[in-house]
Design a protein that fits this description.
Layout: E1 4-5, H1 16-22, H2 38-58, E2 65-68, H3 71-85, E3 92-96, H4 101-112, E4 116-120, H5 130-136, E5 141-145, H6 159-169, E6 172-176, E7 195-199, E8 210-214, H7 229-232, H8 240-255, H9 257-278, E9 282-285, E10 295-300, H10 305-314, E11 317-318, H11 334-338, H12 343-346, E12 349-353, H13 360-379, H14 382-391
Parallel strand pairs: 1-11, 3-4, 3-5, 5-6, 6-7
Antiparallel strand pairs: 2-8, 7-8, 9-10, 10-12
Helix pairs in contact: 1-8, 2-8, 3-4, 9-13, 10-13
The protein binds pyridoxal-5'-phosphate (PLP).
């Protein structure tokens, strides 16, 4: 059976060049980067090189990059790190209702510790109102944490404008850019972002490696205490093979960016057109244009997204209903609900997220298989039958 993977916002395969770059560090290059003998000195060089590559992808300085264990850790490091470092200045944090759980649950944890968190509402496209953001700022606000682009819908936030507001008010601005890195141009010499999180497994590096950009001068309390690694910002012996992998993936993301961007857009538009022209009662979730080039979130009304996902899986097609972290639960996506999508329409959502290895043939296969499955599921859907009877 043909296999088509269209769930790259959940995770990406490791790029062959990344795997190749990592291999020596599982074998002969096994040293500890903190050792001062030859074995340590040799690997330290590669850690420095990887840091330069991540910095270059973001147009930042290598000293501003810290390696972490994953994107979730980066988000925790940013939010708790600022909250703990600035607790005497204030204890109010602003975020949105559509963040990943790595941010939302960290916010809820801090609420239990006595912090106040404002969760900004979003509109039908998934965007915040900048005036609402301004109004939410208090003298005790220490942090604004708003994602660069949403993992479920792909909606892109006005990071420049949010950063300008944060700067004007002297508030630290963190952005979870885990879905944006490699898919959108990010220039941290231009963008007023103080802390930015990224994750390896969304950009063709392995799972279990992330990084954090911390603008020089930004105060953060470290989360993990121990040795003095990462300039005392994140203790623990460096995971050298994975750091090298993230460096290589960043280099490739920068090298192939224009090619990938055009490829994503062309395939995504072909997929969107193909589906919308063949299947009635389909609704786009997310901003029509301000959206990640690889992401397409559609509600197939009158059927359950979960059933659609399972039926597509039987045809070899891997997609997601809602975010990967909530897959398996029958609750509608918190992101779509926050956007005002009615629960039954939110539950009929499917996210297609493309990767660089997807082809036109993959898209055409999905467009060929999907109408048949949707028709079959609608034929047995009481909701749809009611709609048909009413329409007669
Ligand atoms: N933030 C966003 C927007 C994400 O999409 C993800 C992963 O799905 C994460 C955070 C968590 O990253 P990781 O899986 O590396 O912990």
């Amino acid at each position: 059976m043909r296999r088509v993977y269209m769930d790259h916002n959940a995770t990406t395969p490791v790029h062959p060049e990344v795997l190749e770059a990592m291999m020596p560090f599982f074998k002969e290059e096994f040293g500890n980067a903190s050792s001062i003998h030859w074995a340590g000195r040799e690997v330290k060089k590669y850690v420095d090189e990887a840091r330069e590559k991540v910095a270059s992808l973001l147009n930042a300085s290598p000293a501003e990059i810290v390696f972490t264990g994953c994107g979730t850790e980066s988000d925790n490091m940013a939010i708790k790190g600022v909250a703990f470092a600035l607790k005497d200045k204030g204890r109010h944090i602003i975020t949105t209702r559509v963040e990943h759980h790595a941010v939302l649950h960290t916010g809820q944890f801090l609420e239990k510790m006595g912090y106040e968190v404002t969760y900004l509402a979003v509109d039908r496209d998934g965007l915040i109102d900048l005036e609402d953001l301004r109004r939410s700022i208090k003298p005790q606000t220490i942090l604004i944490t708003i994602m660069f682009a949403n993992n479920e819908t792909g909606t892109i936030f006005p990071v420049q404008e949010i950063g300008e507001i944060a700067r004007e008010k002297g508030i630290v601005f963190h952005s979870d850019a885990i879905q944006a890195v490699g898919k959108l141009p990010i220039d941290l010499r231009q963008l007023p972002v103080d802390i930015l999180s990224l994750s390896g497994h969304k950009i063709y590096a392995p799972k279990g490696i992330g990084a954090q950009y911390i603008r020089t001068g930004t105060k953060l309390m470290p989360l993990i205490h121990g040795g003095g690694q990462e300039r005392n910002r994140r203790a623990g012996t460096e995971n050298i093979p994975y750091i090298v992998g993230l460096g290589k993936a960043s280099e490739i993301a920068q090298r192939d960016f224009p090619k990938r961007y055009d490829h994503f857009l062309a395939l995504r538009d072909r997929l969107q057109q193909g589906i919308l022209s063949q299947i009635p009662h389909v609704q786009l979730n997310g901003h029509p244009t301000k959206r990640l080039p690889n992401t397409l979130n559609l509600s197939f009304t009158y059927i359950e997204g979960e059933s659609l996902l399972l039926n597509l899986d039987l045809e070899g097609i891997a997609v997601s209903s809602g975010s990967a972290c909530t897959a398996g639960s029958s609750e509608a996506s918190h992101v779509l609900l926050a956007m005002g999508v009615p629960p039954e329409i939110a539950q009929s959502a499917i996210r297609f997220s493309l990767g660089w290895a997807n082809t036109k043939e993959d898209v055409d296969y999905v467009v060929e298989v999907l109408p048949r499955i949707v028709k079959r599921l609608r034929d047995i859907s009481p909701l749809y039958q009611r709609h048909v009877t009413r329409a007669k």
